[in-house]
Amino acid sequence: MSEDVVISTHDLTKFYGRTPVVDRLNLQVPAHQITAFLGRNGAGKSTTIKMLLGITYPTSGMGTVLGKQILDAAQNREARCDVAYVAEDKQLYPYMTVEQLVRFAKSFYSTWRPDVESRLLRQFELPPTRKVRALSKGMRGKLALLLALSRRPSLLILDEPSEGLDPVGIEELLQELMTASADGVTIFFSSHQIAEVERIADRACIIDRGKLRMNISMEEMRQRCRRITIAFQGDPPDRAFNFPGVRRVRTDGRQTVLLAEENVDALIELARREGAAQVEVDPVSLRELFLETVKEGHDALV
Amino acid sequence: MLWYKAWLETRWRFLLCLGGLVFCCGFFVLAEGTGENFKRLPSWAFTPRQARELLFRAHQGLVALFPIAAILLGMGGMLREKATGVASFTLGLPVSRTRLMLSRIGMGALQTLLLSLAPWIAMLAVVYFYLRQPVSVAFSSSLLLALISGGLLLFSMAVLVSCVVEGEYTAPVAAFGIFVVNIYGTVLFDSLREWNVIRFMRLQEYVDRGTWTIKPALPLGGIAVAFALTILLALLSTVAVERRDF
Description:
The structure holds two protein chains of two kinds. Chain A is built from ten helices and 15 strands. Chain A has helices at 45-52, 73-80, 98-106, 114-123, 137-150, 167-182, 194-200, 218-224, 264-273, 286-296; strands spanning 5-16, 19-25, 28-30, 34-38, 60-65, 68-69, 83-86, 155-159, 186-191, 203-208, 211-217, 226-232, 246-252, 255-260, 276-283.
């Protein structure tokens, strides 16, 4: 396995009963980048993350986190020494105070950074003597982030980190993630919030119905992916645009809209040959790409 | 720190049970020792034999209350954490599930031990300091040993149930149900009466009612079986948690 890949899965599958929640997932997450894991509710994001951390066991397939096998309990435990994880609901022990919880978490990591701990305690205005059960969801989320960042992980995995945070909290979260990334921490986070992803992610992986539909760098997406709107004077030609690199073809009256990730010039040329009256080429946003991907469930770019 | 977590998680249940059992047993010995049954005796006539009778009767009451305490201590654990959403945080820590279970079972076993010892210490203190009677170590320790071994068995049964049955109230109710089935099942079927956990903890058949001393043959085999079953149930609980998805 390449040293530059921190998460790698091979045909990772999880069934709940007869339903495949994660279906032969082949995922590669590069090191030193912020990778977003996008998908609708129930797409399999949280289950994938739980399998990576040994919280849930795969039905079949395999994977590695920081080069350690996820199916081997001892190796998985070793990997968790270098991985910080913030779960979706951010629940923490309600019977502990903030101070007790920090002391508890600190005891498991030799790389704990007291400077980060005190800075974030101040910044997030977390009252040390307050019980966790008395914290709001947003405050609990901040405490979970503090616990994750203070341990100086190689890999930070966050499941819906902005859930429950107010706009100021989201801004603080994004800033902290960017700072951590600049310090060399690899970040893998699941989200529904496309705007956040577009702002900080270097790469986006889209999962739908348990299958990986797309794994693309944001830079690549900006450079390669285009929406081509072709207007015809008569009826658009049938199946003419089933072309390599075309992700989606939608025809509406005399207009055909293509979502292409490569061969854009060749497609424009083809459109002209087919008698296009007008051809418009626009960049594609991640939102559009995401919506197109999860709507149709096309297998491409993987 | 896992032990610290286990302590914080269970301390109120433990302290409540501790306070309740110590108060009930201490008060019973005090009230009975100075009450109707004994007060007609002049103080010089209150004999060590009567002190042992008093302790034995208090032990019967303690045994009746103890299963509730043991089942309360067995509540919680990873399935409860799963229900409240904390399991992901716990399992994200770089520790094995076995270690998580060992700290929980270890803390619970220690608390069960203290719940057995503390009421007995209170009862013996009342007998020794207030009723001014010598304490029979052999008699007290035999009853205590039966209480500890039966108590640990009930605790580990409650832990196992909490590892396989989900639901905050379902698990203790199921554990209590198993306890009730044990009592009534062993009463209904005579061949099973040796397996009645309450009968085993009470030691009624091992006490000479004339002298209020333990008969020579203390059920050491039964005590050994109870300890072995405790370990087996604890291991099964650990295996159940090891294999489970959270």
